[in-house]
């Protein structure tokens, strides 16, 4: 893709998620597996995060994570390219009286050199595959070092090129969904949100590690929704509560083991910047 094509893709993604901001929190709150995913990601982050840290959040959305970390006493600079998401976040900050803890900025993660607040930050955080909305993830990752404090942390939640649950959908006749990650390495996979179409790419942990190896050391990789089904299989937890609890126990036990950490709907990956 050309630079112009990448820019157009970003603009379409921004329009899509701005529109989705009107219903995002309602959908999130009603989905048991999304709540499980957030708890897993937050628990992973807090293993390494020091008290009263400064956080740069990318693709912050409506601020569910920003407000969580703000309530814990951290200072968060929450960024997103979607103006609708930023507006919902600003309203949430006022309602929850977190104006001393959270600042906002409309900014793409592909343009971090233009950030008004350049840190440096103790944590750069991106949740739920926002970074998959670019075909130039290597450039984004290489922009993190100047923004990160020595000894600072990165935690990223990314869609890999293979998902066990998604591939199994072929047996339900959903061939396009089951194979979309296989055929998207160069041009990306077509995504559809709120009437807008844009492309997503899928990245392996090894790709992320190679892109960051000059400045960062790997801390941990965990699979997410490897044994627990993805949240888009709606109402699974509510329809099959005992089965869901059993799968959750297995995933919590094996989340960091091979091959489970590589074949989830997402993986959580964390790094430490070298002093």
Description:
With 275 residues, the protein is of the alpha/beta class. 37% of the residues lie in helices and 22% in strands. It is built from eleven helices and nine strands. The protein has helices spanning 3-20, 24-29, 32-46, 64-71, 83-95, 137-142, 164-168, 175-179, 205-212, 236-239, 241-254, and strands spanning 54-58, 75-80, 102-106, 121-126, 148-158, 189-193, 196-200, 216-224, 266-273. Strands 3-2-1-4-5-9-8 form a seven-stranded mixed beta sheet, sandwiched between helices. The chain has a two-stranded antiparallel ribbon with strand order 6-7. Strand 1, helix 4 (64-71) and strand 2 form a beta-alpha-beta unit. Helix 1 crosses helix 5 (83-95). The longest helix is centred in the N-terminal third of the chain and has 18 residues, at 3-20. The chain starts with a helix and ends with a strand.
Share of residues in helices = 25-40%
Strand order of the largest sheet: 3-2-1-4-5-9-8
Bulk shape: globular
Give the biggest beta sheet.
7 strands, mixed
Oligomer classification: single chain
Order of helices and strands: HHHEHEHEEHEHHEEHEHHE
Radius of gyration: 18 Å
Structure summary:
The protein is of the alpha/beta class. The protein contains 11 helices and 9 strands. Helix 1 (3-20) packs across helix 5 (83-95).
